[in-house]
Amino acid sequence: MPSHVHRVALVLVASLCALPAAQASPPRASCAQVMRVLADQLADAVCVESPDLTTTNPQTTPADNALPGLPPSAFTPRADRAVLVDMVSTPPVKTPINSVVPGLQISARIATDPLGQARFVLRLPFNWNGRLVVAGASAQRSEYNGDFAWSDYVVQKGYAYASQNKGTLNFKISQASDPLACRLNPTSGIFVHFYDDDPGQAFTRWTEFMIEAARLARLGIKGAFGQGPHYTYAVGTSNGGYQVRRAIEEAPQLFDGGVDVEGTYVDQKAPNLLVDLPRAVLNMPDYVSNGQDANSTAARNIRSAGYPPDIASTAAGGLSFWQRHDASYWELTLCQWQKRLDPAYDSYGAGLANYDYYRRQAVSDVGQQVGRIATTGDIQRPIVTVVGTMDALLPIDHHARAYARAVRARLPDGSGRAAGHRQGSYRLYEVQNGNHIESYKAFYPQLEYLLPHTQRAFDLLVSHVESGWALPPDQCIARGGAIASTPQQPGHCAEYLVGP
Predict the structure, then answer these.
(1) Given 178, 322, 452, 497, which is the most exposed site by the fewest CB atoms within 10 A?
(2) With DSSP H G I counted as helix, E B as strand and the rest as coil, what are the percentages for the chain, rounded to 5?
């Protein structure tokens, strides 16, 4: 039996042997090499040799509304990248940048898209480490939406980074007479038209373009460095987390693992957004008129739909936690999904608050539409989900925990590891008091940030895939804590909200 020292030495040797050979100086890439292999795959392509691929360089993320011929709000890269971090607090809470990362940046449309909206960005550090990260996009955001949260983190480590926009531009200002327009909130007179609701913009495209981004990035890397990536990882938040799940379910041959942050869960029966959101929208006016009484029928109805408890604002005259979601996300998100999946429904005549998914299946094909985009849980590569217990847009039990249940329902022993599948592990890390919108912590100090935990989860996933280290078990990450190999709170968090 080898001694402890010998065992440690053997593990270190094995880990070193597992590192990809590409970490030794890869050949210096050039735009000519990359475009030689991607030219017929991309349209309107621009390749530049960048002195710094991090967002310290203002040229890394284009200015909002920088694409000619589009109305305002259709393309908003700098607004998009601020969504996944906290740019409200002082100082902002985003990825620290400690190094300059010279390399190539390629931005373009994806030529195969018949609608001409699918966009793609690829960043290739000159000190490439042999790996690739492919990012999903939250909401209807652009391919630059992960620049603060994901790109800055991984390019500093030498990863190539690719992202896409789910095949859709964002939105344009419209009017109430537009049959595909959605008002910003229940009291607003401003209407917006999401490109995602236009003809031909099936939500199935979200999976297609996540997979296509991986394929294009791998091709570009091979052109730049003479070899493809040794490992490819998917990352994404919210709808981007949904993209991670679906890409690994559908194309495990392209990915070695993924980190899904607050991913959207979709099931033809339930849970799904068309079931949960109407109950929140319906009960919110009564909740407010009853003085935001936590014991009111309206409050109980909202919580019974899966939503976490409300929080009063510390700012004078500020909105409560539920009110802020109601004003920014609940009705607007419900409208956008209804317009796409059940466009015949009269959003503002019959009322979004009265939308009944089960009854609509008898008069429309909404059930089939939802079934086409459902998350299956059939994974053949490891996925780690990071989510906050106070997620009030995609409630934890109806999204993160629901996906965990779907994965384990496909496993014969419920172990979280797919029998017969290479590294089909699944882990769920719940952040106590974490919320879907990081910047909301500025209004509700009880909330906790997810960003440090998502980046730590990524590093743990890489060690699991490449060196065989065991992923820490499912756990509740206490406030101020971190993902632990032997957690004090294994499994689910007992409460959605703790502390004052």
Answers:
(1) 178
(2) 35, 15, 50
Query: Which pair of tokens denotes residue 279?
Result: 């109950």
Distance CA 77, CA 154 (A): 19
Nearest to 328 by CA among 291, 296, 281: 281
Report whether the peptide linkage leading into residue 395 is cis, meaning its omega lies within 30 degrees of zero.
no
- Are 211 and 120 in contact by the 8 Å Cβ rule? The answer is no
Q: Do residues 276 and 296 touch, judged by C-beta distance below 8 A?
A: no
**Tens digits of per-residue pLDDT, 438-447?**
999 999 999 9
Contact 443, 313 (CB under 8 A): yes
DSSP assignment letter at 381:
S
DSSP letter string over 416-432?
Answer: SB-TTSTT-BEEEEEET
Apex CA 85: angle with CA 299 and CA 125, to 5°? 150
> What is the per-residue pLDDT across 328-347, written as a single tens digit (0 to 9) for each?
999 999 999 999 999 999 99
**Residue 467 CB contacts under 8 Å (≥ 6 apart), including other chains:** 14, 15, 18
Q: Taking the model in full, what pTM does it have?
A: 0.93
Residues 6 or more apart whose CB falls under 8 angstroms from that of 371 comprise 268
